[in-house]
Structures are given as structure tokens and as C-alpha cells.
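This section describes the prediction task in plain terms. A model, or a person checking by hand, is given the sequence of a single protein chain and must write out its three-dimensional structure as a string of C-alpha cells. No templates, partner chains or ligands are provided. The sample shown here is typical of the held-out split.
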Amino acid sequence: MAEAYICAAVRTAGGRRGGKVADWHPVDLAAHALNAVVDRSGVDPAAIEDVIMGCVGMVGEQGLHIGRNAVLASKLPEHVPAVSIDRQCGSSQQAIQFAAQAVMSGTMDLVIAAGVESMTRVPMGSSGRFTRSFEPGSAKSPGLDKKYPDIAFTQFAGAEMIAQKHGFSREQLDEFSLESHRRAKAAIEAGAFDKEIVPLEIEGGMHTQDEGVRMDASMEALGGLKTLVEGGVITAGNASQICDGSSGVLVASAEAVKQHGLTPLARIHNLTVTAGDPVIMLEEPLYATDRALKRAGMKIDDIDLYEVNEAFAPVPMAWLKHVGADHAKLNVNGGAIALGHPLGASGTKLMATLVHALHARGKKWGLQTMCEGGGVANVTIIEAV
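The expected answer:
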């Protein structure tokens, strides 16, 4: 089977809801990431064979095939096709895996996997809000309700369930969250994101720094936030931040690397996706990681760095506990609690961070995973080259 290589990995700096990135139309935001992938890699735009664009809220400004619209708004020529995909929070991580599968199968040589989400302009949950009469509706059908009666599929409930199941207190969640902010602050001050962030032109200058990081975060401030449900432990402080952003990676075959003079950053070693309990929902990365490591013939101690999306603090905390991983290797530059979680863009965003963090530290093996709506999880293992 052919090898698949990542030859560019970029992201925009995250924007808070209504913040510095709010004026960017999501199509142009996605096109900006596509252009940056082309510029960073030096590849001929006409040689790109497909674009796979992850996006969760595919309505309104993100509707009508945002992947194709992003290509048309970018420097890529019209003949480059695109597809828009939704695997919830893992949409653009799945885009990477689809791109890698195309390359590994020998059917394509150059594919851009990307993602975008403007959570300011297309609020979370927008795609499930209307029925045929344009009134509020539910994505839970009579058939689903028959199989899962009186159960609401919500990530907030799943996060509370994970915290309860694994015995995490509110204080433990806040401590984890504080560490995310501290690591993100340290990464910003050290310039750790400089190689992955592509500047965005905004009113008054350029946007180059993640807007959501609380540089003065404290346990006192986190402890003062109200829980999302009475008697619960999840707050806005120990959950991921609403975020606007885009990201992308170039996936290439060994032949394309030679033909186009590309510089590989990483080799894609393992692609795994699994599904489990749709109610607790966010716990699946634990079991997906077990399967990925087994299929790769590896142990968690073989992995140098891991990116586990911080949708809610209990998720990476439960992952650490279950897998027996080292917290020092987890989300070393902070995670979504500090940096933001732009839904459909997070998969390629985390990959950009992981690839560059491995190179910055002279490390070899990286693992990325994230929880996804409906109880699904992707795991991707890469080898820095």
C-alpha cells in the first residue's frame, strides 16, 4: 500500500464569538486556509486532485456546499473538485483520513483536507433547528425515539455522565482547565504557534494570536462560574470555547512528493474510526485509541505527544485515566478549553498543532483523537519525518 504524507499543516488563530474573526465570511475563511496550504507547500494549485472540507453547521453562509464554494473563492483553479463532510467535531480529522485513504489506495496523489466553522455567523445547532414548515424541530425521529425512548442526545449530558462515571470533581475539572490556559499562554509567549498560524487580515491589522486564551486564568475565576445544569460540574470554564476559524493540511503520495519537490512533515501511520454508546457519547475516544494502538502494534508509551480534543475537561481526563497516558505529553500547547473549538475546523487544526509540536521537540510519534456527536471517534497516528 502506498504511503501518505502531510506536506503542509496550517490554521488560523481562533476568534472568540463576535470577536476579531467575526467579519470573515466562512467561505472566505475556508479559502484562506486552502491558499495557505498551497503557499506553504509550494505545490502547483492545478495539481490538487480534490478538496475535502469538514464543516458541522452546513446551513446559511456555510450551506450550499461550502467545500466547493471555498475552492471557487480560493486560488485553486475551477477544475479542482471538492466535497463537504460532517462527522461532527471530527469532520476535518475525517477529512484527513479520507484524503489519506485516497492517496494510500493509489487513486489520488494530492488532496487537501481542510475544515472551517464560523460559530459566530452560523451558531452551533443551526443545522437542526428547522422543519419543513421552518419552525423549530428535532433531529430525533420517531424511529430513534422508539429505540432510545426519553433520551436526549446532548453532549452536555454526556460530559456530566463521564465526570460522574470516572469520579471527577468540579475542582479537578477546573484544575485541568487552568493548566490548558497556562500551557496555551506559555506556547503563545514562546512563539510555539508561529509556524502553524496563517495571519488573517482584520480591521486594524492582522489576527495572529488565539483570542480566547485567558492569560490571567485562575482557580478563583474558574470556581466562580455557574454550572450548566443544577448540581452538575460542567461550566463554561471547563468546556471548550466557541470559536471561529479554519485550517488545512496537504496529503501527498511519495510519488507526488518527488514530482513536486515537496517537503514531508509527517507520515500517516494509522487511521481508525469507531462508534459506541450514543448517550454518554463523548467517551468513545478511549476505546478508539485502544483499537488504534492494537492495529498499529503500538503501546501508549510509544507515542511521544498526543492531541485529545478538550470538548469538555472530563473527556481528555477520562482518556488519560483509561489509556494510562502521561499528562505531560497531552495537549502540550494547551487545548480547546483555552484555544477554542471551531467544530468542523478542529480536526485539521489539531493536526497542524501536533505536527509542528513534534518537530519543535524533536519527537517522532503523535496521536490525535476527539469525541464526536453520536458516540463516534477518530484516531490518527502520525510519524514526524
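For orientation: The mean pLDDT is 96.
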